[in-house]
Penicillin-binding protein
Amino acid sequence: MSDLATWRLRLIFAALVLLASGIGYRVVSFAVLQGPVLAQRAEAFRFREDVVPAHRGEILDARGRVLATDVPADRVSAIVREVEDPQRTAQLLAPLIGRPAEEILAALTQPGREWVVLQRQLDPAVSAQIRALDLPGIVLDPEPKRAYPMGDFASQVLGFVNWEYRGAYGLEAQYDAVVGGVPGQLVGERDLAGNVIALAPSSWNPPQDGATLVLTIDSAVQYLAESILERTIQDQRAAGGTIIVMDVRTGAILAMANRPSFDPNRFREVTDPSLFANPAIGAAYEPGSTFKVITLALGLDAGVIQPETVVDGGAYRELPDGTRIFNALHQVFGPETMTEVLIHSSNVGAMEVADRLGPERFAEGIQRFGFGQPTGVDLPGEIGGIVNLPGSPGWSLTTFYTTSFGQGIAVTPLQLVTAVAAIANGGVLMRPYVVQEIRRGDRVQVVQPQPVRRVISEETARTLTAMLAEVMDSYAGRFAVPGYRIAAKTGTAEIPGPQGYERGEGATIASVVGYGPVEDPRYCVLVKIDRPKGSPWGERAAGPAFAELFRQLLLLKGIPPSQPVTSTPSGGSQP
């Protein structure tokens, strides 16, 4: 054999040795060195751990009507390696699951991914369409979906459940740990289609379903509040508004209506997240003349005034620094009693009461009524408002006096209703609440009303109630509740802006707050209309809605009239 042939044989032999060595190395590498890792990956692919969401408890109104519940749904996922034609699969799924085909294709072709969730909470009809396609690698798993049968009804009280099946905003967030339950866990061996192999080893830790909430919200009263609020906003060409109805004896909230609102079934479509927040507890405003109720309550309780106390109702009060603070429209009322201060809505008269109390006693009384701090209602996002206390940066002699008639102080609608309800029930501040029962199977936890503190004496409450009933009688020419005596006060508040108070059309907040029937107060109602353009005044923009709501509320609750239904001559009030 020639040297050239020998060299060729040796070269071929060396190549075969190198090839055999490479193959051997790969075999050893996979079988020995990477064996445990690859085995773990294979097992992870076959044995998949799934979190099984618990069914959330229902949310019921006080009449047992379902406001929030779970309905059947599915999530669609893909076993990436089993998808034969990613592009065709993406195009077929896109119109069904509401995702662009490009997004689905990107999800199906991610490097290193074995399993990907494509969409969640699909309706059964959509799931049926996906099953009919019989796409390789596409898997459907059941999961619950939250539904709100009444649409945007009380939506900012309820909140919603997000993509992660967690409560967001409202009661869904506040009681998430209670109503949400405890998720379960399923670990099982899957076949190539992603289905659990029945005879293979698996472990199942079942979920614990959530508790049911029963609310103080009465759907009939809530419907009245929302309907009247919507109509009033439309008539007044207003920006929005709030109506609250509270049981004065317990602090239970029968209705909490806000506009604008949103449909929690379609929360994904909301472009303005501020709609999710509840302005009844999370938006402070200057209450205007409705706050005179609190000022006179403090004056009466301290003994610095009586209903018949007479003050000079001039056009303005001049402060030591020369600042003049006027009545609305610079009106001059002349000598007026404290009842007439409320009827006239006299700023000068309210300032006289604050003056007699003094800054320290006035500030202490405001805080005693709960202003400047959250009420403690069982809803998330509550704020405490703004009270300028003596010695604080925001306090001045001017804010001291303007606070007496509801400017220079910021309150939430719920704070004001809760404070006025304390006058209605004889002087005890109650903690407002929305959930009255928590049901876990056969166990029922009943939420008891919680008195916070006494804020005024029973005698003061009776006296002020009689005064406010006279105020309501004076409104009879503009709005009234035929057959019933109601205690109420209107308010018209200017809106502060960067350059001082706003001016022009839609630059006020109009409101009415009151309670009744006077003989045995049961309900406190606040109607607040934001930026009305029909009329800036509380008695005209909010008064008719207040009267209509109270009329229907008392009829709904079966409370008989206490007096004949007659027309009453109009009085001489100012808003």
Q: What stands out?
A: The chain has three domains: 3-33, 48-215, 219-263+279-440+450-556.
